[in-house]
Recover the amino acids of this structure.
């Protein structure tokens, strides 16, 4: 995976993130020393780390989309999640042309709101977020053990991390991707890398999460990604004879675990905030 995420033209955190991602090289693998039960428990720990059931989660997201040869664009949004009831709200803050747009999941239905015509339209977890390589489901909890079965697992070295890599196949039709490979670091149970595949075995996307940030709630400390890099393995362009793929960098800041007002997860809230 050396050089997989080469962010030409990105600055600051993106360049540092690129260096970290480049270090995520798969250098060795062997049969896992874990038992089947231990492997399942580690995968469940990785799944649980993506959800916050005891309170609400709020954070600022910066989503930078890079299309080789076509420059890049940036979207800023505030995300609210109430994982206990599977509700979430995304309010777009910039760019100006998209300010006030938003997404809402309530009663297991996803809606997209456009203040230009003041209409809500049906959306899906598989839909791309604002034309990026990220799905709206990338901002919500993951359910590896609920929606997939483990076909195999083995020990691997991913850069500096001792990981277990899992091959997963969907048991539900409601997933975005039928086949996954997931890398989980053994010492902390955090997902470090994920590959999404079609049923035919075509690699569709690669996601890297090189660093996490601690966020406290009561006596508990949760680990939340600092950033995520999503590469679309189907969309790209040859530049100077070398294939470059579309990539989306998601940076997460101002993360807070605190209960929000129930109104935040309603259509009237999006309509109200779109006028500000």
């Amino acid at each position: 995976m050396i050089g997989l995420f080469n962010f030409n033209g990105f600055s600051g955190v993106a360049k540092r993130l690129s260096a970290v991602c480049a270090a995520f090289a798969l250098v060795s693998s062997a049969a896992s020393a874990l038992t089947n039960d231990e492997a399942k428990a580690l995968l469940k720990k990785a799944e649980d780390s993506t959800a916050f059931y005891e309170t609400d989660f709020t954070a600022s997201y910066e989503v930078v989309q890079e299309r080789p040869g076509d420059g890049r664009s940036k979207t800023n949004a505030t995300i609210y999640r109430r994982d206990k009831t599977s509700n979430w709200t995304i309010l777009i803050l910039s760019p100006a042309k998209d300010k006030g747009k938003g997404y809402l999941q309530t009663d297991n239905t996803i809606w997209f709101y456009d203040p230009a015509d003041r209409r809500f339209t049906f959306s899906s977890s598989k839909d791309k977020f604002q034309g990026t390589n990220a799905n709206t489901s990338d901002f919500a909890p993951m359910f590896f053990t609920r929606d997939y079965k483990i076909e195999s697992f083995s020990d691997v070295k991913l850069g500096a991390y001792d990981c277990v890599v899992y091959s997963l196949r969907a048991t539900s039709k409601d997933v975005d991707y039928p086949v996954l490979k997931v890398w989980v670091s053994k010492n902390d149970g955090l997902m470090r890398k994920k590959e999404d595949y079609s049923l035919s075995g075509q690699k569709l996307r690669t996601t890297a999460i090189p660093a996490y940030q601690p966020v406290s709630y009561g006596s508990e400390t949760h680990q939340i990604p600092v950033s995520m890099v999503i590469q679309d393995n189907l969309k790209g362009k040859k530049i100077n004879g070398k294939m470059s793929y579309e990539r989306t960098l998601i940076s997460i800041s101002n993360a807070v675990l605190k209960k929000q007002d129930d109104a935040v997860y309603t259509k009237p809230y999006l309509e109200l905030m779109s006028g500000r």
In short: The longest helix spans residues 36-48. The CA atoms of residues 10 and 18 lie 9 Å apart.
